[in-house]
């Protein structure tokens, strides 16, 4: 029986982001309040009778085996496992899913019966948690490719809250400590990595789960990549990444209703001279230990890039978060955005 404060907190968190569409089955879950939500968890999701529901979060998720399919999920953290209640459209979204989800028949004759797929990652199988740049996402990794999933929160607050709750739950696990060396010398004592202290931006929790945070080299690598895409027009030393944010590019499809739009996940990077949109692989990097070869695609792939000096105006919507921004550029006649200009009228 969770406390009233916890039930109230879980109820407040049980809200689907307005800009994302989900199936009827997940809409049903989002409509549950208070004790009804806790009873739903124990009656339909929980695998052990005595586990407690500690945290609930709605987030887009990516699986290591299907890095191109982003799906909405209700993420439930208990004292035993992390449950990902998935949108049922995910099962049919990719041809390779037939191997990943070994179920015989997902179609039901009864139209009022809605099925959701639940992916379970037991806390005992958890090995590491990689936090993305500026806490925009985090990747949870187990011992195999089936046990790697990335949560694209696109919100540093949600990322921070989940990580804090996860650490608290992991502290309850009784795991056998790592064996100590028989004869301790000065160097092994001084260089111990099981003290829980931050070393190389990697924190080893008391449950032996690694929490890995991005270091300055990642920003440097990203700046170098951006400089490459700018065709060496800018000195790398003077290049500053002002903003890194996970966003959606809105593509209005022809023939559709005026209010419907297609959201494509993009990484937006703003420098002092350019605005870039990248297609980023959030789940394959850094490479897990079992990976024998690098992924099929690079971590960052340039989708679009524009000069700030060509920016004519920025249109802002009046809706609440998430905010919609429209960037209007006046460089229509110059289709080759990244061409090397021999004469730069705006620079020295």
Secondary-structure content class? alpha+beta
The helix content is: 10-25%
Q: Give unreliable regions as ranges.
A: 188-200, 336-343
- Name of the top-level CATH class of the largest domain: Mainly Beta
Q: How many angstroms separate the termini?
A: 69 Å
Whole-angstrom Rg: 23 Å
Order of helices and strands: HHHEEEHEEEEHHEEHEEEEEE
CATH architecture of the largest domain: Roll
How many helices? The count is: 7
Mean pLDDT rating = 80
Strand order of the largest sheet: 4-3-2-1-7-6-5-9-8
- What form results from the Cα inertia axes? globular
Strand segment tally: 15
Keywords: Cytoplasm
GO biological process, one term: lysosome localization
Main location: cytoplasm
Protein name: NISCH protein
């Amino acid at each position: 029986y969770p406390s009233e404060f916890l039930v109230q907190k879980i109820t407040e968190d049980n809200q689907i982001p307005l800009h994302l569409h989900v199936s009827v089955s997940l809409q049903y879950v989002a409509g549950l309040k208070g004790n009804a939500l806790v009873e739903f968890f124990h009656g339909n999701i929980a695998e052990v009778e005595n586990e407690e529901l500690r945290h609930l979060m709605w987030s887009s998720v990516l699986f290591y085996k299907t890095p191109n399919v982003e799906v909405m999920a209700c993420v439930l953290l208990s004292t035993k496992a992390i449950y990902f209640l998935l949108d049922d459209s995910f099962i049919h979204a990719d041809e390779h899913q037939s191997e990943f989800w070994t179920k015989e028949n997902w179609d039901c004759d009864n139209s009022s019966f809605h099925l959701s797929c639940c992916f379970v990652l037991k806390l005992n199988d958890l090995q590491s948690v990689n936090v993305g740049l500026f806490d925009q996402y985090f990747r949870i990794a187990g011992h195999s490719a089936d046990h790697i999933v990335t949560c694209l929160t696109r919100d540093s607050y949600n990322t921070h809250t989940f990580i804090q709750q996860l650490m608290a739950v992991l502290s309850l696990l009784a795991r056998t400590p790592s064996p100590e060396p028989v004869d301790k010398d000065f160097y092994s004592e001084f260089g111990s990595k099981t003290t829980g202290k931050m070393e190389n931006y990697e924190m080893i929790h008391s449950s032996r789960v690694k929490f890995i945070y991005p270091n300055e080299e990642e920003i440097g690598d990203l700046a170098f990549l951006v400089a490459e895409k700018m065709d060496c027009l800018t000195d790398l030393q003077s290049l500053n990444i002002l903003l890194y944010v996970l966003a959606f590019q809105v593509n209005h499809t022809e023939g559709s209703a005026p209010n419907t739009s297609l959201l494509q996940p993009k990484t937006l990077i703003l420098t002092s001279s350019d605005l870039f949109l990248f297609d980023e692989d959030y789940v394959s990097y850094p490479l897990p230990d079992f990976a024998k070869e690098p992924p099929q695609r690079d971590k960052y792939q340039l989708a679009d890039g524009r000069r700030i000096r060509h920016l004519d105006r920025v249109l802002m919507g009046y809706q609440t978060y998430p905010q919609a921004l429209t960037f209007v550029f006046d460089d229509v006649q110059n289709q080759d955005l990244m061409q090397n200009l021999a004469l730069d009228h705006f620079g020295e």
